[in-house]
Amino acid sequence: MAGFADSVARGCDDFLATARRTVEIVVEMVGDETIETSPVGRPETWQRQPPADYKPGAFKSNWRLTLDGVDATFDPNRTSSFFVSGLDKLPADPFGHRFVFSNAAPYAWRIEKEAWAIEARGGVIGPVSMEFNRIVSAAKAQAQSQGGRGVREL
Amino acid sequence: MSDPVAPEVSMAKALEAALKSIDPAMLTALENVSFTPPAVTVAYQEVIHVLATPDNAEKGGSTFLQTGYMQVILRFPGAKGKGAAWACARAIRSLFKAEASFEADGITTNIGLTPRILPGSNDTDGRYVLTVRVPFNAELPN
């Protein structure tokens, strides 16, 4: 009966590998979608003068991914790094963690709920959260097509 | 000859008409319609529609499912307490209750969930801002 037990164990391993890879892809896709939805300010089109220390691109460049916590760091000089900081630190086993995307730009809340950004009048988190089911379906399909293996293993 | 009405616009039209039916009436800023904000002592609301990626449950079907939310930004006079703004937000929540539906130009727009009220804050003019998100869905023709 060792053959049957081996086959069940292999099935479990495959399932878990696919589930782990699905989580990784979901996190990456949510990060990509968040960056894509984030606006870059164009002060030249604003009716009001921007604050003296305002730098276009700082909001889009300050998305951070943290495990089980919130990163409240904001670097106003980071203006052209259109990727989520921390994506490269995804754990080998993502189960049991909370993946938190945060942006500590002082005006981030106004972008989300006060229609401050012309390019993202409905906010960023709201629109991205509506895409979550689609992202999970796409990630699952992609993980299954890879047999649960990560890019590094292919 | 007038332009044909896009079903996406009919969806917004139905929700905006319902919103404007709330008593007492409020000044309303709509997308791409000229609007000058009133004095900071007068309340007004701003309406924005956000659409999600459509869902094609049936490949080759004659319709697709469009979900999204109507964002109503309530701007009330500052330093006057939060009661009036929250009463207004509550009226929106009650009107657009889950399972309610609204129709315009033959398009029925459904409310899938109770509207979400985001935490209040003050804008740069000192107005008290309360944002309400009304989630909706509709089957739209291809």
Write structural notes for this entry.
The complex is a heterodimer of chains A (about 150) and B (about 140). With about 150 residues, chain A is mainly α. In chain A, helix 1 crosses helix 4. The longest helix of chain A is centred in the first third of the chain and has 36 residues, at about 1-35. The two termini of chain A are about 30 Å apart. Chain A has one domain (about 1-154). Helix content of chain A is about 40%, strand content about 5%. Chain A contains 4 helices and 2 strands, in the order H-E-E-H-H-H. With about 140 residues, chain B is an alpha+beta fold. Chain B has a single domain (about 5-140), classed as STM4215-like, CATH 3.30.2000. Chain B is built from 2 helices and 8 strands; from the N terminus they run H-E-E-E-H-E-E-E-E-E. In chain B, strands 1, 2, 3, 4, 5, 6, 7 and 8 form an 8-stranded mixed beta sheet that branches. The mean pLDDT of chain B is about 95. Chains A and B meet through helix 2 and helix 3 of A and strand 2, strand 3 and strand 8 of B.
Low-confidence stretches of chain A: none
Principal-axis shape of chain B equals: elongated
Q: Element order, helices and strands of chain A?
A: HEEHHH
Oligomer: heterodimer
Class per helix and strand makeup of chain B: alpha+beta
**End-to-end distance of chain A, in Å?**
32 Å
Distance between the termini of chain B: 23 Å
How would you classify the helix and strand content of chain A by structural class? Answer: mainly alpha
Which whole number gives the mean pLDDT of chain A?
89
Concise overview:
The complex is a heterodimer of chains A (154) and B (142). Chain A is mainly α.
